[in-house]
Predict the structure.
Amino acid sequence: MKYIVFAGTLINLFFTFSYIKAVYKGHIQPNKITWLMWSIAPLIATTAAISNGVGLSVLPVFMSGFTPLLVFMISFANKNAYWKLHTGDYVCGLMSIFALAVWYISKNPNYAILFAIISDGFAAFPTIVKAWKYPATEESKAFIGGLILATSSFFAIETWNFSALAFPIYLVGLNILMIYAIEHKIKRV
């Protein structure tokens, strides 16, 4: 059962590449601060979880940092993929960085995971607001893939503790919230 994370990873990559293609073509406009911080926080949480003995179940957390890094990088390839940043975006970005600094000072792997979640949440806020107000600027496919990926981690958890559970639980909730924010106003024909 623990190898389900590999299937979740492949599904996530499929959906993420669809999102990346839409970004490249300028069909959607990702918030660059969100996507950069979405790459940093999970990669830090991955490192902290590994240092605390978490095994294969950390792969979805790693991928939830790696794929946003790809989106962030591709967002520079097409000027139509630009989303104008506002003061609130920068404040959330700074709060996200602050949360990572607090973790760095503590040196505790569980604090690293907690503050990576807080950091990621601050980073997510501008995109949640953007998706809610302007759902056409986002696409739910990447978040559906993220939900599948995050859910797959529960099949690989060997020790049910904070280090193994916290970030995947957060990711499930975040992806559900993003999907709802994007899809709540869209009427499908």
